[in-house]
Amino acid sequence: MFADLPLEAMLSPWALGLLGLLIGSFLNVVIHRMPLMLERQWWGDVAGQLGDTASYRRVFAGDAHPGLLQAGTSITQGIEKLAPLDLLRPASRCPSCGHRIRWYENIPVLSWLYLRGRCSACGAGIPLRYPFIELLTAVLFAAVGWRFGAGWTALLWCAVVALLLALAAIDWDTTVLPDALTYPLLWGGLLAAGLGWLPGLSAWDAVTGAAVGYLSLWSVYWLFKLTTGKEGMGYGDFKLLAALGAWLGWQAILPIVLLASVIGAAVGIVMKLRSTLREGRFVPFGPFLAGGGLVVMLAGLPRVLDLMGWS
């Protein structure tokens, strides 16, 4: 049936918007589960390190206390008892009562409205962010369709949008930008440019953009650390900006950083005035880098430079 549809219909803004609703539903799973998957992995790393007596002896010049070995064994056994967890298993359930979400309770946006934002079994609230992510993904996918037209390249940019949304939400929640998302975004941009799939962006511009993106924030990080003795950002921010440079070119790096800095500072000031800053009194930078990248991607670099008075 779909094979008979023209490309303009399959990749129209409306079709991409519908696809965005479905992808947005999956992004909610990614945003919720990937941090938990990472935490399991980290605890496994801790257990492995506690059981590495040779490493302990090299570092501390002595034998490890038996309690450390026992702790490592206890952690390992605890992890082994946990139910499998990945992006597909287990099936979605209510975190309050364990009610398995039925297919008709998992229709993007509509199910949330039908259920009035509450679990059908226990009545626990379903956060508004779930339909918000679905709607935002749909709107951005549709915007990609209008911006890039009904071509296969639009699907590449939709993938970029999805990864940026997931990274932004995870970083906002946890201050972590998972390598499992930033690396595919980075290498995907370099590959797409190298294969000539990104009109107007050469492989050289992509490679230079990745290098400039990474090294610019890396330099700021070390300058700040050497000056203050504190860490102002994480390495995930370097990788994210490198990935944006790979997709948008080195010319986009400065506008993205400026947009992210201005918006991030404004949000930080508002949160400070409302006393909603998290422990440590900082705001993660990744969501604003992702937002700056989306602005440049959808508006186009020439228009952004013109609005900034740099054209």
Model description:
- With 311 residues, this protein is mainly α.
- It has 13 helices and no strands.
- It has helices at residues 7-10, 13-50, 53-60, 66-81, 110-114, 129-148, 153-174, 179-194, 203-228, 235-248, 253-273, 286-299, 301-307.
- Helix 8 (179-194) runs antiparallel to helix 9 and helix 10 runs parallel beside helix 12 (286-299).
- The longest helix has 38 residues, at 13-50.
- The N and C termini lie far apart (47 Å).
- The model has no long low-confidence stretch (mean pLDDT 92).
The span between the termini is 47 Å
Order of helices and strands: HHHHHHHHHHHHH
Mean pLDDT: 92
Low-confidence stretches: none
Please give the number of β-strands. 0
- Large-scale geometry: globular
Q: Counting H and I runs of at least 4 residues, what is the number of helices?
A: 13
Question: How much helicity do the residues have?
Answer: 55-70%
**Biggest beta-sheet profile:** none
The secondary-structure class comes to mainly alpha
